[in-house]
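#lab-general

N.A. 3:47 PM
ok so I finally got the sequence cleaned up, no stray characters, all 126 residues accounted for. can someone with queue access submit it? mine expired

B.Y. 3:52 PM
send it over

N.A. 3:53 PM
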Amino acid sequence: QVQLVESGGGLVQAGGSLSLSCAANGSNLYKYDMGWFRQAPGKERELVAGISWSGGTTYYADSVKGRFTISRDNVKNTLYLQMNSLKPEDTALYYCAVDTSVPWRPIVRLEYLQVWGQGTLVTVSS
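B.Y. 4:20 PM
back already:
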């Protein structure tokens, strides 16, 4: 059972920044691709960003490209999401996800990312 714990959410004004973290407790996820999803009230969950197991390949949704940065520290077993220039439409519950189906994938397959954490709430006021 994968255990992921997200943190770093909060209330911020539009234009501000937040940094989210996702700790993998009891699981070594250094060999798996990971990502961040979000779900706003009344909307479907959407993929925000993804990163390969090595950190060498990243993916961003068009809505956050240029504002968000995904990264990972495989020694600390932690995933990060740096969010800058936040907008009210970024308000959502943010979840981290991992693809544990195949280790050391040569090519990231975003469709295999699964959410395991409880999420952290990000609220951006206008």
